[in-house]
Protein: Tight adherence protein D
Amino acid sequence: MYSNLTKKILLSTLIVFITACSSIQTNQAPLTVEDIASKEKLYESTRNYSGLVSIYREVLKGNDDPSIRYKLSDSYYKKGDSRSALLYVAPLLDHPQFIEKATILKVKALIQLREYQQAIESATALIARYPNNVEAYNSRGIAYAQVGKLNDAQYDFAKSRELFIDDVVAINNLAMLQIINGDYKNAVQLLLPQYLNGEKEQRLLHNLVFALVKSGKTDYALDIIKKEHLNTSADDLVNALKKTQKVSKTISVTK
Structure:
């Protein structure tokens, strides 16, 4: 009898708890346009992609706005959840106003998932429809580089630069191909002028230091490591890079 009474009390408590939670959720005031804008600005400035996901999901519950859906998918991609990005961007792939940018996001997500062949196929189809899409060439070049098709990657990176992709992205990608090929001297020739002109993007710096070390210019590499605070022990980093046989393919994706 005591056991039955205890069960009834616990069940009643659980029902009350669930009802209370439900009331809190249903009574929660919907986000205003001002709320969304202010939170969006804050989360974007702090790269709080989880916060952005929460905002956009809340908005989409009341209105499946394609622009918000795209932002949700992009936020998932930027937080590293490309499976979710692909799920939510899928309805936009046939949307007349979003097909181009939605497909680019799909390609980037596939690359993040290391589904390189699918990324190449999607990018190629997009280029056939939009032959001047700079991000399509850059993204396809990344996928080609990852599967070892370096000549194809070289063409796509050069084409994206011809179409005025950001110089830092283009030069870093072209230099990365030189590094993969073991042509460290040419990599330095591409990256060093950018650094001397004040460019300090992290991937560019890391690739430059690696190429300098591998081409025997350790003094210059040490100077950059110390000046840019790339490591607490510059000598240890240089020694480690000397022993490195392969470098990770740090290819730049436009945001």
Remarks:
- The domain at 26-113 is CATH 1.25.40 (Serine Threonine Protein Phosphatase 5, Tetratricopeptide repeat).
- The longest helix spans residues 2-27.
- DSSP finds 14 helices and no strands in the chain.
